[in-house]
Amino acid sequence: MIRWLVGVVLGALVMHFAAIAALPHAIMRGAMSRLQATPVNTFAHGPLATAASRAIVRPSPDLAYSSLVFDVSEHALAVRVPLTPPYTSLSGFAANTDNFFAINDRTAGASEIEIVLVGPATPRRDLGSARIVEAPSERGILLVRRVVPSAEAFAEIDAVRRRASARLVP
Predict the structure, then answer these.
(1) Going from the N-terminus, what domains does the chain have, and what CATH number goes with each?
(2) CA–CA separation, 33 vs 55, rounded Å?
(3) Are 68 and 43 in contact (CB under 8 A)?
(4) What is the DSSP letter of 19?
(5) Mean pLDDT of all residues in the chain?
(6) Largest CA distance in the chain
């Protein structure tokens, strides 16, 4: 009986830790596939969120979202996000769902957010003096959130957000 009980407890512990290790990666693979309306390393700009929107978990109806599924396994990625009032932020999410960085219009120090995203094994030649952000994984998601104060303001904000860019650094 004791052997059986020890076996059950050990089996439960193994399953528990396996789930903790695997589940975040599975969740992120699902999120990346839902957001992959555009090629990898290219921004996608969604419509304003509604009650039916679920590409982003718990979307807010007063935010305009832009997303980018990144892959920095072979090259760094230069990202430029123009800012719009009253608020703009750029966040990075690793392959295990961890939020590894966030920057907003108040901390950007300029009229746009500019970073160079690298992964653990990304070659780092010729990156100059850019703000380097190191992702803990080669793949993940960048998410831009912009406050849209009114329906009338969306067209102007949408035009600015479509100027966001990402390009591989050779």
Answers:
(1) 44-169 (2.60.40.1610)
(2) 10
(3) yes
(4) H
(5) 85
(6) 70
